[in-house]
From TrEMBL:
Keywords carried by this UniProt record: FAD, Flavoprotein, Oxidoreductase
Domain FAD-binding PCMH-type positions: 1-159
GO MF term set: FAD binding; oxidoreductase activity
Pfam families (UniProt xref): CO_deh_flav_C (PF03450), FAD_binding_5 (PF00941)
Protein name: Xanthine dehydrogenase family protein subunit M
InterPro entries associated with the record: CO_DH_flav_C (IPR005107), CO_DH_flav_C_dom_sf (IPR036683), Diverse_Substr_Oxidored (IPR051312), FAD-bd_PCMH (IPR016166), FAD-bd_PCMH-like_sf (IPR036318), FAD-bd_PCMH_sub1 (IPR016167), FAD-bd_PCMH_sub2 (IPR016169), Mopterin_DH_FAD-bd (IPR002346)
Superkingdom field: Bacteria
Amino acid sequence: MLADPAQKAVVLAGGTDILVLLRERRRRATLVVDVKKIAELNELAMTAEGGLFLGAAVPCSRIYREATIAEKYSALTDAVKIIGGWQIQSRATVGGNLCNASPAADSIPPLAIYDAVAEIAGPSGRRQMPVAEFCSGVGKNVLARGELLVAIIFPPTPVHSGAAYQRFIPRNEMDIAVASAASYVELDDKGAIRKARIVLGAVAPTTVRATKAEEALIGQQPSDALFIKAGELAQLAASPIDDMRGTVEYRKHLCGVLTRRTLAIAVERAAANKK
Protein backbone atom coordinates (compact mmCIF):
# COMPACT_ATOMS: atom_id res chain seq x y z
CA MET A 1 0.00 0.00 0.00
CA LEU A 2 2.84 2.39 0.82
CA ALA A 3 4.48 1.64 -2.52
CA ASP A 4 1.33 2.18 -4.64
CA PRO A 5 2.11 5.14 -6.96
CA ALA A 6 -1.63 5.86 -7.28
CA GLN A 7 -1.84 6.66 -3.56
CA LYS A 8 -0.31 9.36 -1.40
CA ALA A 9 0.10 7.15 1.65
CA VAL A 10 1.19 8.05 5.18
CA VAL A 11 1.89 5.79 8.14
CA LEU A 12 -0.04 5.93 11.41
CA ALA A 13 1.94 4.58 14.37
CA GLY A 14 0.78 6.69 17.32
CA GLY A 15 -0.92 9.44 15.37
CA THR A 16 0.01 12.28 17.72
CA ASP A 17 1.77 14.13 14.89
CA ILE A 18 0.28 12.89 11.63
CA LEU A 19 -3.38 13.21 12.65
CA VAL A 20 -2.86 16.82 13.71
CA LEU A 21 -1.04 17.61 10.46
CA LEU A 22 -3.78 16.02 8.35
CA ARG A 23 -6.59 17.77 10.20
CA GLU A 24 -4.83 21.12 9.83
CA ARG A 25 -4.19 20.33 6.13
CA ARG A 26 -0.46 20.77 6.60
CA ARG A 27 -0.03 17.28 5.13
CA ARG A 28 -2.06 15.64 2.37
CA ALA A 29 -2.84 11.95 2.08
CA THR A 30 -5.22 9.72 0.17
CA LEU A 31 -4.41 6.70 2.33
CA VAL A 32 -3.50 6.32 6.03
CA VAL A 33 -1.85 2.99 6.85
CA ASP A 34 -2.24 1.96 10.49
CA VAL A 35 0.74 -0.15 11.59
CA LYS A 36 0.00 -0.35 15.33
CA LYS A 37 -1.00 -4.02 15.25
CA ILE A 38 1.96 -5.36 13.30
CA ALA A 39 3.70 -7.65 15.80
CA GLU A 40 7.31 -6.80 14.97
CA LEU A 41 6.64 -3.06 15.21
CA ASN A 42 5.28 -3.61 18.73
CA GLU A 43 8.22 -5.65 19.99
CA LEU A 44 10.19 -4.22 22.91
CA ALA A 45 12.92 -6.54 24.16
CA MET A 46 16.57 -6.86 25.06
CA THR A 47 18.52 -8.57 22.29
CA ALA A 48 20.65 -11.70 22.66
CA GLU A 49 23.74 -9.48 22.49
CA GLY A 50 22.50 -7.31 25.36
CA GLY A 51 21.20 -4.42 23.27
CA LEU A 52 17.65 -3.19 22.83
CA PHE A 53 15.09 -3.81 20.06
CA LEU A 54 12.54 -1.00 20.03
CA GLY A 55 9.69 -1.53 17.59
CA ALA A 56 8.62 1.58 15.71
CA ALA A 57 5.03 1.41 17.05
CA VAL A 58 5.90 0.94 20.74
CA PRO A 59 4.37 3.82 22.76
CA CYS A 60 6.52 5.93 25.06
CA SER A 61 4.69 4.78 28.19
CA ARG A 62 5.80 1.16 27.65
CA ILE A 63 9.43 2.23 27.44
CA TYR A 64 9.72 4.16 30.70
CA ARG A 65 7.89 1.44 32.63
CA GLU A 66 10.73 -1.00 31.94
CA ALA A 67 13.31 -0.89 34.73
CA THR A 68 16.01 -2.54 32.59
CA ILE A 69 15.68 0.14 29.90
CA ALA A 70 15.83 2.90 32.51
CA GLU A 71 19.01 1.33 33.89
CA LYS A 72 20.81 0.71 30.59
CA TYR A 73 19.39 3.48 28.37
CA SER A 74 18.67 6.25 30.83
CA ALA A 75 18.85 9.08 28.28
CA LEU A 76 16.09 7.40 26.25
CA THR A 77 13.96 7.19 29.39
CA ASP A 78 14.71 10.86 30.15
CA ALA A 79 13.28 11.76 26.74
CA VAL A 80 10.17 9.58 26.55
CA LYS A 81 9.02 10.78 29.97
CA ILE A 82 8.70 14.36 28.71
CA ILE A 83 7.16 13.84 25.27
CA GLY A 84 3.76 15.40 25.86
CA GLY A 85 1.58 14.42 28.83
CA TRP A 86 0.48 11.01 30.03
CA GLN A 87 -2.29 10.70 27.43
CA ILE A 88 0.12 11.52 24.61
CA GLN A 89 2.75 9.11 25.97
CA SER A 90 0.27 6.23 25.78
CA ARG A 91 0.05 6.79 22.01
CA ALA A 92 3.19 8.61 20.85
CA THR A 93 6.04 6.45 19.55
CA VAL A 94 9.77 6.98 19.30
CA GLY A 95 9.60 5.61 15.76
CA GLY A 96 7.03 8.22 14.80
CA ASN A 97 9.03 10.95 16.53
CA LEU A 98 12.06 9.95 14.46
CA CYS A 99 10.15 9.78 11.16
CA ASN A 100 8.54 13.17 11.84
CA ALA A 101 12.10 14.57 11.79
CA SER A 102 11.48 17.71 13.80
CA PRO A 103 14.72 19.51 14.75
CA ALA A 104 13.27 19.80 18.28
CA ALA A 105 12.28 16.13 18.61
CA ASP A 106 13.09 14.90 22.11
CA SER A 107 13.91 11.29 21.28
CA ILE A 108 16.39 11.83 18.44
CA PRO A 109 19.43 13.16 20.42
CA PRO A 110 19.31 10.16 22.81
CA LEU A 111 19.04 7.75 19.88
CA ALA A 112 22.08 9.36 18.29
CA ILE A 113 24.31 9.24 21.38
CA TYR A 114 23.67 5.51 21.75
CA ASP A 115 24.65 4.92 18.09
CA ALA A 116 21.24 3.36 17.49
CA VAL A 117 20.44 1.88 14.08
CA ALA A 118 17.19 2.22 12.11
CA GLU A 119 15.80 -1.01 10.62
CA ILE A 120 13.92 -0.18 7.41
CA ALA A 121 11.73 -2.51 5.32
CA GLY A 122 10.66 -1.86 1.74
CA PRO A 123 9.73 -3.49 -1.58
CA SER A 124 13.37 -4.41 -2.21
CA GLY A 125 13.97 -5.95 1.23
CA ARG A 126 15.51 -4.62 4.41
CA ARG A 127 18.31 -2.21 5.15
CA GLN A 128 19.86 -0.59 8.20
CA MET A 129 21.35 2.84 8.74
CA PRO A 130 22.54 4.90 11.71
CA VAL A 131 19.78 6.95 13.29
CA ALA A 132 22.15 9.93 13.16
CA GLU A 133 21.81 9.84 9.33
CA PHE A 134 18.06 9.13 9.20
CA CYS A 135 16.80 12.73 9.23
CA SER A 136 17.78 14.66 6.12
CA GLY A 137 16.25 18.04 6.97
CA VAL A 138 13.37 19.77 8.71
CA GLY A 139 10.47 17.31 8.49
CA LYS A 140 12.39 15.12 6.03
CA ASN A 141 13.83 11.62 6.35
CA VAL A 142 15.53 9.06 4.13
CA LEU A 143 12.56 6.72 3.68
CA ALA A 144 11.80 6.09 0.01
CA ARG A 145 8.33 5.35 -1.38
CA GLY A 146 7.11 2.06 -0.01
CA GLU A 147 9.59 1.95 2.87
CA LEU A 148 8.62 1.60 6.52
CA LEU A 149 10.60 2.09 9.71
CA VAL A 150 10.36 -1.26 11.50
CA ALA A 151 12.50 -0.75 14.59
CA ILE A 152 15.33 1.07 16.27
CA ILE A 153 18.13 -1.20 17.47
CA PHE A 154 20.50 -0.14 20.25
CA PRO A 155 23.92 -1.70 20.84
CA PRO A 156 24.75 -2.99 24.34
CA THR A 157 25.88 -0.40 26.88
CA PRO A 158 29.16 -1.27 28.66
CA VAL A 159 29.82 -1.02 32.38
CA HIS A 160 30.92 2.38 33.65
CA SER A 161 28.85 4.09 30.98
CA GLY A 162 26.06 6.59 31.50
CA ALA A 163 23.95 9.07 29.59
CA ALA A 164 21.43 11.85 30.11
CA TYR A 165 19.07 14.06 28.12
CA GLN A 166 17.67 17.48 28.97
CA ARG A 167 15.84 20.20 27.11
CA PHE A 168 14.74 23.75 27.85
CA ILE A 169 11.20 24.91 27.13
CA PRO A 170 10.00 28.53 27.61
CA ARG A 171 6.96 27.52 29.64
CA ASN A 172 4.98 24.39 30.43
CA GLU A 173 2.29 25.32 27.89
CA MET A 174 4.79 25.22 24.99
CA ASP A 175 6.13 21.68 24.97
CA ILE A 176 8.78 22.24 22.26
CA ALA A 177 12.48 22.49 23.03
CA VAL A 178 14.25 25.80 22.55
CA ALA A 179 17.45 23.76 22.77
CA SER A 180 18.29 20.27 23.97
CA ALA A 181 21.35 18.13 24.66
CA ALA A 182 22.13 14.47 25.17
CA SER A 183 25.46 13.31 26.59
CA TYR A 184 27.02 9.86 26.84
CA VAL A 185 30.25 8.93 28.61
CA GLU A 186 32.30 5.85 29.38
CA LEU A 187 34.77 5.88 32.25
CA ASP A 188 37.97 3.87 32.54
CA ASP A 189 39.14 2.01 35.66
CA LYS A 190 40.63 5.22 37.09
CA GLY A 191 37.47 7.26 36.58
CA ALA A 192 38.74 9.24 33.59
CA ILE A 193 36.51 9.74 30.55
CA ARG A 194 37.39 7.13 27.94
CA LYS A 195 34.64 7.88 25.43
CA ALA A 196 32.12 10.71 25.04
CA ARG A 197 29.32 11.66 22.70
CA ILE A 198 27.33 14.91 22.80
CA VAL A 199 24.35 15.56 20.51
CA LEU A 200 22.42 18.84 20.39
CA GLY A 201 18.82 19.32 19.29
CA ALA A 202 16.66 22.26 18.14
CA VAL A 203 19.73 24.31 17.11
CA ALA A 204 20.07 23.20 13.46
CA PRO A 205 17.89 21.56 10.76
CA THR A 206 18.92 18.14 12.17
CA THR A 207 20.69 17.03 15.33
CA VAL A 208 24.29 18.20 15.72
CA ARG A 209 27.27 16.25 17.06
CA ALA A 210 29.53 18.43 19.23
CA THR A 211 32.76 16.69 18.28
CA LYS A 212 35.17 19.34 19.58
CA ALA A 213 33.52 19.19 22.98
CA GLU A 214 33.79 15.40 22.93
CA GLU A 215 37.50 15.52 22.09
CA ALA A 216 38.17 17.87 25.00
CA LEU A 217 36.74 15.31 27.42
CA ILE A 218 38.74 12.23 26.36
CA GLY A 219 41.34 11.15 28.92
CA GLN A 220 40.28 13.78 31.45
CA GLN A 221 39.05 13.38 35.00
CA PRO A 222 35.47 14.67 35.30
CA SER A 223 35.14 18.09 36.94
CA ASP A 224 32.90 21.14 36.86
CA ALA A 225 35.65 23.08 35.07
CA LEU A 226 35.91 20.38 32.41
CA PHE A 227 32.15 20.38 31.87
CA ILE A 228 32.14 24.18 31.53
CA LYS A 229 34.85 23.95 28.87
CA ALA A 230 32.90 21.24 27.03
CA GLY A 231 29.78 23.40 27.18
CA GLU A 232 31.62 26.33 25.62
CA LEU A 233 32.90 24.09 22.80
CA ALA A 234 29.43 22.62 22.28
CA GLN A 235 28.09 26.10 21.58
CA LEU A 236 30.39 26.29 18.55
CA ALA A 237 28.62 23.31 16.96
CA ALA A 238 25.19 24.96 17.09
CA SER A 239 23.75 26.96 14.20
CA PRO A 240 20.32 28.01 15.51
CA ILE A 241 17.84 30.54 14.14
CA ASP A 242 15.83 33.34 15.73
CA ASP A 243 12.17 32.53 16.19
CA MET A 244 9.32 33.02 18.66
CA ARG A 245 10.91 30.56 21.10
CA GLY A 246 14.36 32.15 21.36
CA THR A 247 17.20 34.07 19.78
CA VAL A 248 20.38 32.68 18.29
CA GLU A 249 22.43 33.92 21.27
CA TYR A 250 19.99 32.47 23.79
CA ARG A 251 19.96 29.07 22.11
CA LYS A 252 23.74 28.90 21.98
CA HIS A 253 23.91 29.81 25.66
CA LEU A 254 21.44 27.01 26.42
CA CYS A 255 23.62 24.52 24.52
CA GLY A 256 26.43 25.25 26.95
CA VAL A 257 24.20 24.99 30.01
CA LEU A 258 22.49 21.77 28.92
CA THR A 259 25.78 20.16 27.89
CA ARG A 260 27.28 20.88 31.32
CA ARG A 261 24.23 19.51 33.12
CA THR A 262 23.85 16.34 31.05
CA LEU A 263 27.57 15.55 31.29
CA ALA A 264 27.45 15.82 35.07
CA ILE A 265 24.45 13.47 35.24
CA ALA A 266 25.96 11.07 32.69
CA VAL A 267 29.21 10.81 34.68
CA GLU A 268 27.29 10.21 37.90
CA ARG A 269 25.28 7.45 36.25
CA ALA A 270 28.42 5.94 34.70
CA ALA A 271 30.14 5.78 38.07
CA ALA A 272 27.13 3.94 39.51
CA ASN A 273 26.89 1.53 36.55
CA LYS A 274 28.98 -1.43 37.67
CA LYS A 275 27.17 -4.28 35.96
